[in-house]
Write a structure and sequence with these properties.
By secondary structure, the chain is an alpha+beta fold. The chain is about 55% helix and about 10% strand. It is built from eleven helices and eight strands. Strands 1, 2, 3, 4, 5, 6, 7 and 8 form an eight-stranded mixed β-sheet that branches. The N and C termini lie close together (about 5 Å). The relative contact order is 0.10.
Length: about 425
């Protein structure tokens, strides 16, 4: 049974939605412009900082902001004595003309141009190469690098002369990080964060706004069609029957307000529209049937199920089995599909069920990605570590022997999800449109 559409109320809702998403777009513009200002200011200061050079001092505080390149000339270089867990960054001992050692950090494999400097360290009688200027920024020596450095330096000299107590006397408190650039006195992190926030708000505001404007246009067209159909119905009601008097057109005692279906319609008489319209007996109210938009419904189901994904991760982080969140995924997927598509039919219900099932697996994968990132953040808390974990997820799961727990968690997740959602799933499978 079709419900009456209150076009005034629907338009008011659309207007409220348009105003709300326009406000979001204004906020996105403010965040974006602010982020652009901060980013350009940081870029300008970083550019000026990279035009300056200072001699590297191993005893300076490497945690401070770097406003110039730190440089040193080397004549010798050892093999790497440490590397990060991603095998991306490598640590070496370098020596200057006075054979004073310090630590440098480089990215990737060592280039051929450095080979003469390694030969000078390891091959007896090798000629001293021309000094090479290396540059980067000062960075504090971490505890694990300190331990590797002490062990490797004692092996290099075949003597246990370096200890924790005298390490700073030999090596200082900072190393030369050749993988970074001086950023000046401004940090571009705030600018990037505001730009990303503005972009996200722009997408959140722009995409629904377009759909609401389209829906408003369709609503106006539907209202115009309804008025035209009402006009035609009124003309049809007032048209007298052949052979009847004018006073009989409206029916006896009704004043012409009630719609009466004649037993047979004469040729040429306009029939009331059928199929996607509904009528009141009095008042001649024409109601178009709302058809579901599958594409928007899928977007709504995915967006709704993400609420369950967030709940899954939150429950997992506090140490509980998160499978119960599968019910929330399905419930919100159905709500999201209905809200954006305009109608929840059996097709939409099955699509929502399928999306929720996929999201259970996605949530479990995301849970393990977060767990791996948390473990590796102990050594390198950066976006590069997150990218490394995502790209090498399968290998890391194998190396850490986590596949067993992953599969078990997935089975428990699906089991608890089915148990919690059994009644809802049964209604979906036996769902009949009314």
């Amino acid at each position: 049974m079709n419900r009456t559409v209150n076009y005034g109320r629907e338009k008011q809702r659309n207007t409220t939605g348009i105003i709300g998403f326009v406000i979001i777009l204004i906020m996105a513009s403010i965040c974006g412009l602010s982020g652009l200002f901060f980013y350009m200011d940081a870029a300008s200061k970083a550019s000026r900082a990279r035009q300056r050079e200072e001699r590297f001092d191993p005893w300076e505080d490497g945690s401070q902001v770097q406003d110039a390149w730190k440089t040193w000339e080397i004549v010798g270089l050892t093999e790497e004595f440490a590397a990060d867990f991603k095998e991306t960054y490598h640590y070496y001992f370098a020596f200057d003309r006075e054979w004073y050692p310090f630590i440098i950090k480089m990215k990737g494999d060592l280039r051929e141009e450095y080979q003469p400097y390694m030969d000078y360290v390891y091959e007896e009688g090798a000629p001293q190469p021309e000094p090479m200027k290396v540059r980067g920024v000062a960075a504090p020596i971490e505890d694990d690098i300190r331990e590797f450095a002490i062990e490797s330096m004692n092996i290099l000299y075949d003597d246990e002369f370096m200890t924790e107590d005298n390490f700073e006397s030999y090596m200082g408190i900072s190393f030369l990080d050749m993988t970074r650039k001086p950023g000046g006195k401004a940090d571009s992190f705030i600018g990037r964060a505001l730009l990303i926030c503005g972009l996200v708000l722009g997408i959140v505001g722009a995409v629904p706004l377009v759909f609401i404007i389209w829906a408003r246009r369709d609503l106006n067209l539907a209202e115009q069609r309804q008025r035209e159909n009402m006009r035609r119905m009124a003309a049809w009601q007032n048209e007298p029957e052949e052979g009847d008097g004018a006073g009989q057109a409206g029916g006896q005692g009704t004043g012409g307000t009630a719609w009466q279906q004649p037993p047979e319609q004469p040729a040429g008489r306009q029939q009331p529209p059928s199929g996607d319209q509904a009528y009141h007996v009095n008042g001649v109210r024409l109601i178009p049937v709302r058809k579901s938009n599958v594409f928007l419904g899928i977007l709504g189901a995915v967006g709704g199920s993400l609420v369950g994904v967030v709940l899954w991760i939150a429950i997992s982080l506090i140490g509980f089995i998160a499978g119960i969140a599968g019910f929330v995924m399905l419930k919100f997927a159905l709500k999201g599909y209905e809200k954006l598509s305009g109608k929840l039919d059996k097709k939409g219900a099955l699509i929502s069920l399928f999306i929720a099932a996929l999201m259970v697996c996605f949530a479990n994968v995301l849970d393990y990605i977060i767990a791996l990132c948390r473990a590796f953040f102990e050594w390198d808390a950066s976006l590069d570590t997150v990218r490394y974990v995502i790209v090498n997820f399968g290998t890391l799961m194998t190396d850490t022997e986590s596949w067993g727990g992953f599969i078990l968690n997935l089975i428990l997740g699906y089991g608890l999800s089915i148990w919690a959602s059994f009644g809802l799933i049964r209604e979906i499978l036996h769902y009949r449109e009314r």
